[in-house]
Amino acid sequence: MSAxxxxxxxxxxxxxxxxRVREVEVENPDGEITVCDSCEDSLxxxxxxxxxxxx
Length: 55
Description:
Elements: E1 21-27, E2 31-36, H1 37-40, E3 46-54
Antiparallel strand pairs: 1-2, 1-3
């Protein structure tokens, strides 16, 4: 089952809900965030694992 636009959480950086948004586990600081491709470049945390991809 694929996610629809309604199912896509907004990017924690810019609020984007279209395109590829990923839910990832990060360290330094630890936690889970959602991030789009554009904001991933400016991410200051290290991605440990990809939890889910919304396309």
